[in-house]
Amino acid sequence: MAAKYNIGDDFRRRIKEIKLTRWIRFGLVSLLFLLWVIWMRTWWLAIFEILLFDIYITGYIPFTWWKKSESKTVRGIMGWVDAIVYALILVYFVFAFIGQNYQIPSSSLEKTLLTGDYLWVNKFVYGPRVPMTPVNFPLVHNSFLGHKSYLDHPYIEYRRLKGLRKVEEGDIVVFNFPAGDTVSTKFEDTPQYYDILVKQYGRDVVHNNKIMFGDIIYRPVDRRQNFVKRAIALPGQYLKIVNDTVYIDGVVRDFPEKVQFNYLFATSSPLSERDLKSLDISPDDISQFEEGSVSRKNVQPFLRNAPANATAYIAPLTQGMIERMKEKGKLLSYIKFSNVAPFFYGNVMNSMVFPFGEKGSWTLSNYGGDNGLFIPAKGSTIELNSDNWITYQRCIRNYEGHTDAYFDENLQKVIIDGKVADYYTFELDYYWMMGDNRDNSQDSRFWGFVPEDHIIGTPMIILASFDNNRRLFDGRIRFNRIFRSANPDKK
Q1: For residue 314, which of 158, 220, 223, 470 sits 20 to 30 Å off, Cα-Cα?
Q2: Which helix (H) or strand (E) holds 264?
Q3: Do residues 110 and 438 touch, judged by C-beta distance below 8 A?
């Protein structure tokens, strides 16, 4: 006659069979898990401590059934599956709560950060966001093989865990693109985001021409494109730009050490490939005016002290680059292109400046008006009128969820959630982000404020750096940048 099964005796037997080393492993994992629960401030998660106890100690759930299989093939395959699953879970938690690697895809922060830099981004410093779309394909951002890499549900409302500090003025910050909520799938990886396309072609054309624009979809906050810029102004501050110089609350701010502006310049002789390398000018960034061309003749009046047959270029330059050309006797004449552009482009560029050219006199170099632009802070209140509604409507409608908000032309009042609103109190902090490559950066001057829930983290170090304009044994790997600080201007 078979012995009667006793769950209490079986439990005690399993406990006695566990070696001390496994108890130690369970203790360490359990401690880390409980610290994570405390950090999350989501106490119901503690129930999973029971699961950890079973995995390490009692073993009632047969997670490792394959270890007892008589098939060597099954044991081999499942061993690899087990290791991969553990690795993916570890990577998921590290990427979600500690940090992650990112690549610099564009030149907007050159020469501080270069195209081809691979960065380690610290999410812990500002406090990581609790994943908003937690169910996703690992190690990819928002698409995989042409399809969404995440599920829209479950969706977790924005919550940020406690970090070491808040964003500081001058920080280089990685964030989700604020204007990337509505996306034209064929333009998602281009500077022409949805709002620009609608302004250019009209909403009906963008939504009805799938051949040209693809599908029009919505991206959750944490699945919008990743951008990296410098925090120029913080919540509650006033921003003003005068002749490219930034003023915060009326006080001038120094330029970052390697800030760049586009220059029109003439040289005593054509710049060779060796010259470009020594000056650290990327061939993709420089354009030459052909001798005798109409455009060359048009720029001649701006190139004082340079003969009409001198070679003329336009390129982004740092002050250091300018000084090096002077030292070599190469530079004959130079002028910021922002001083020249109005003669060539008129008001076209101004029409693209946030808030979409409604402030007619605002330009990339002169921005914010007489009093400066107020950067919204959580809890701050503004009076609503036809003028500032243009500036803050996206904050109210898109970022803070009041989709039924609009300016009533008949009443000359703002209507929010069906009620007249003379004032509005902001629910989030906002930031103003700009690139160091000032004339070649799609930044807040084009699409406005960055809400706090879009902030991902700050780059700490450069893991690797590759110059795609050079050959493998001719400087393709930038060894001098590896493990250097990703934000050298911060002391």
Answers
A1: 470
A2: strand 261-267
A3: no
d(CA 366, CA 359): 11
Cβ–Cβ < 8 Å for 287, 465: no
Report the alpha-carbon distance of residue 433 to residue 456 in Å, rounded. Answer: 13
Q: Phi/psi at 113 (nearest 5 deg)?
A: -120, 140
Task: Supply the pLDDT for residue 345.
Answer: 62
- Helices then strands (H, E): number in the chain? 13, 24
Greatest extent of the chain over all pairs of C-alpha atoms, in Å: 111
Q: Per DSSP, what are the bridge partners of residue 424? A: 382
**Phi, psi dihedral angles at 83 (to 5 degrees):** -65, -40
pTM: 0.90
Cα 364 from Cα 362, distance rounded (Å): 7
DSSP of 62-116: -TTGGGG-S-HHHHHHHHHHHHHHHHHHHHHHHHHHTEEEEE--SSTTTTTS-TT
Taking Cα atoms as reference points, which of 133, 121, 70 lies closest to residue 94?
Answer: 121
Q: Which of 60, 51, 63, 62 is nearest to 26 (CA)?
A: 51
Q: Are 169 and 247 in contact (CB under 8 A)?
A: no
pLDDT tens digits along 408-417: 999 999 999 9
CA angle 270, 440, 340 (to 5 degrees): 65
State the average pLDDT for the chain. 90
Backbone φ, ψ for residue 401 (5° rounding): 80, 10
Q: CA 307 to CA 371: how far, in whole Å?
A: 43
- Interval 389-401: pLDDT, tens: 999 999 999 999 9
Does residue 1 surpass a pLDDT of 60? Answer: no
Virtual torsion, Cα 10, 13, 14, 17, nearest 10 deg: -160
Of the ranges 90-94, 215-219, 270-274, the best mean pLDDT one: 215-219
Instruction: Report which of 458, 404, 486, 145 is spatially closest to residue 396, judged by C-alpha positions.
Output: 404
- Asked whether 299 and 289 are in contact (CB, 8 A), the reply is yes
Tokens of 317: 């330059």
Here the tokens at position 30 are: 């359990």
